[in-house]
Design goal:
- This protein has 369 residues and is α/β, with parallel strands linked by helices.
- The chain contains twelve helices and twelve strands.
- Strands 3-4-5-8-9-10-11-12 form an eight-stranded parallel β-barrel, surrounded by seven helices.
Length: 369
């Protein structure tokens, strides 16, 4: 099969991409203690640009000095000092020919560390499922969050907007609002974590309102031409099997609302992006594309270039985001173009932590071919 569709240019809102391969956002907990860009982040991100990816979506960056931080050594973009590091990193990536999309994240109830607050906040006071992730320095069950007040909701929404403006001023080509994987905005969307009785709780239309409000405020802060994407999933880092209770009926509500709110694109992530979203029928990416009318990035299980290219040729997605396979082969696009087999990902890269030091130690032990 020809992989040429992966390497066609694409206009994504205000960004002209040289090809249709992107780096998916991946938490690497390698910033400084105070959330500034760490030294190891420069060669890490630059390698993806040198390797031929059309764009890099950064790891989730926390957005405020209230309840958004999720992990120790997570980068933030909450003040001029943190933003200054992103200016240098963004320029470095762009100089190698890739666009940069900063992913903006509020951890909500899944926060494992917050240097600003000792408690967590969420849509409702519901104990999260699962346990904290050890390779991100977590241990034991998640604490039970307190319910966000209306004022705290406004603080969270404002945090996204302010962070997006800082990212824009730092030179980013776009931002991606993290509405997936069990973090705050997904907690509002999910039925069992959102038991609110106000305008943010109840049916699917009400539960997606928080994400839409964030999109609108970010759009207001950055202007009509800036690229503002949103990431959506069913599964969560603490609940891998979750599916929307309303199945396609929920999709028919969620995806048009995201488009109406002003999103430039939708980024869907599933364990296997090319499989039916529910028991039968289209993938989540194809549903997003059909129901929103927006460009769609598909992520999940697409390290096989044949599967990735097929997502494009059968009109299920417009772009492909590569996660763990890109960690093993930062030059994945170049290797695929030259018909070489990219290196395989190993979870040993995440031992003892899923940080960049552990990855560098792994590559020192097992040099790439």
């Amino acid at each position: 099969m020809s992989f040429s569709p992966l390497f066609e240019p694409f206009q994504l809102a205000s960004m002209k991409l040289k090809n249709r391969t992107l780096v998916a956002p991946m938490t690497r907990v390698s910033a400084t203690r105070d959330g500034c860009v760490g030294d190891l982040m420069f060669p890490y991100y630059r390698a993806f640009a040198d390797g031929g990816f059309g764009a890099v979506i950064t790891e989730g960056v926390y957005t405020d000095k209230a309840y958004s931080q999720g992990y120790q050594y997570q980068p933030g973009i909450t003040d001029p000092e943190q933003a200054a590091g992103w200016v240098r990193l963004i320029r470095d990536i762009q100089a190698a020919g890739s666009k940069v999309i900063l992913q903006l994240m509020h951890a909500g109830a899944l926060s494992q560390y917050n240097r600003f607050k000792s408690e967590t906040r969420a849509p409702s006071s519901v104990p999260p499922r699962g346990t904290q992730m050890g390779f991100y320095r977590g241990e034991g069950p998640y604490p039970t969050p307190r319910e966000l007040s209306p004022a705290e909701i406004d603080t969270a929404v404002k945090g996204f907007a302010d962070a997006a403006r800082r990212a824009q001023d730092a030179g980013a080509d776009g931002v991606e609002i993290h509405g997936a994987n069990g973090y705050l905005l997904d907690q509002f969307l999910t039925d069992y974590t959102n038991r609110r009785t106000d305008d943010f709780g109840g049916n699917t239309l009400s539960r997606v309102r928080m994400t839409c409000d964030v999109i609108r405020r970010v759009r207001d802060a950055t202007g009509p031409d800036f690229t503002v994407g949103v990431r959506i999933s069913q599964a969560k880092v603490n609940d891998f099997e979750h599916k929307w209770a309303g199945a396609e009926d929920d999709a028919r509500v969620i995806f048009p609302q995201l488009a109406k709110a002003g999103a430039s694109y939708i980024h869907t992530t599933e364990f296997n992006a090319d499989q039916p979203a529910f028991e039968t029928g289209p993938s989540l990416a194809r549903l997003a594309r059909l129901l929103s009318g927006l460009p769609v990035i598909a992520n999940g299980g697409l390290g096989d270039p044949e599967r990735a290219a097929k997502m494009l040729t059968d009109d299920s997605a417009d772009l492909i985001a590569i996660g763990k396979p890109a960690l093993a082969a930062p030059d994945w696009p170049r290797k695929v173009q030259e018909q070489h087999v990219p290196e395989a990902f190993s979870f040993d890269m995440f031992s003892p932590l899923a940080d960049l030091k552990s990855a560098n130690d792994y590559f020192a032990r097992v040099p790439a071919e």
